[in-house]
Amino acid sequence: MPVATPDQYAEMLDRAKAGGFAYPAINAASSQSVNAVLQGLTEAGSDGILQVTTGGADYFAGHTVKARATGALAFAAYVHEVAKSYPITVALHTDHCPKPALDDFVLPLIAASESVVADGGQPIFQSHMWDGSAVPLDENIDIAKELLPRLKAINAILEVEIGVVGGEEDGVKHEGSNEALYTTTADVSKFVDALGLGENGRYIAALTFGNVHGVYKPGNVKLRPELLGEIQAGIAEKFGTGAKPLDLVFHGGSGSTDEEIATAVANGVVKMNIDTDTQYAFTRSVAGFMFANYDGVLKVDGEVGNKKAYDPRAWGKVAESAMAARVVEATQQLGSAGKSQS
């Protein structure tokens, strides 16, 4: 299927919210990881979200240059073409964009979509994340207010982060106090006061409840997904809305338990980011292949190796299938398996 239109993407999120499930949003940094995600979603019968970070976009453009907007556009063009061969729907999203990266990442991509839409086309990306977690709350809100009308005009969705996700992802690093890892209802209320609840443009919110990027040993991370329900109730009461007025995003989800994921989804999460676990699945399978076929991939003891083993397609297929299997697992955890609207 082609990449989701803005209306299809909005419908995906609405279906998830109404149906009590969420979509995996998997980071891709190469054509191989794109293929793996499409393979996994197809095997699971699930729609999903493909996303790219600043670092992933840099890599798409070529690791010896710094041209992340170009890399992101190349990523999008590739997905738009190859997704036509798969019977599921995917949306395209740009992940974590801190303030220093606005001018060379998200803003050029919004401008590119504005040009396409002006010519009668669809936005290149269906949503963009502004990561204002490293700036004061008021500045975070002000920048979100500047971005939201531009995205509304091209029928795209804004993702905001209210709170701090610990750890590091592609150079975006947070080492704040433990309290900063838990979003407050008061901070969310300030955002809603400024952005509205959809009337000024649709946005999804990454609230933090102890989330940390990466995977840590048990006991090192204290997730409180029930906090999301408390915040939803507080916002509903203050603004006089129905239950769960916010569409939420779960960051730092790798390594979470099934119970933690289920609680987060029950409290309004419609999108969960997955990166570390899929990276490991990809690379672990390559390591296994190399160890099992070392005399084929290496020309040792004067031998010539085995071209069928060191051909990048041989281990590449293994890696893509291993990553695809982790994508399938994610759809099962989130409840999106078997629910493709395609």
From TrEMBL:
Q: What does this protein do?
A: Catalyzes the aldol condensation of dihydroxyacetone phosphate (DHAP or glycerone-phosphate) with glyceraldehyde 3-phosphate (G3P) to form fructose 1,6-bisphosphate (FBP) in gluconeogenesis and the reverse reaction in glycolysis.
Cofactors needed by this protein, per the record, are: Zn(2+)
**Which pathway does UniProt place it in?**
Carbohydrate degradation; glycolysis; D-glyceraldehyde 3-phosphate and glycerone phosphate from D-glucose: step 4/4
Q: Which organism is it from?
A: Microbacterium terricola
List the gene name: fba
Q: Is Lyase one of the keywords?
A: yes
Catalytic activity, reaction form: beta-D-fructose 1,6-bisphosphate = D-glyceraldehyde 3-phosphate + dihydroxyacetone phosphate
Q: What is this protein called?
A: Fructose-bisphosphate aldolase
Q: Which UniProt keywords apply?
A: Glycolysis, Lyase, Metal-binding, Zinc
Fetch the InterPro entries from UniProt. Answer: Aldolase_TIM (IPR013785), FBA_II (IPR000771), Fruct_bisP_bact (IPR006411)
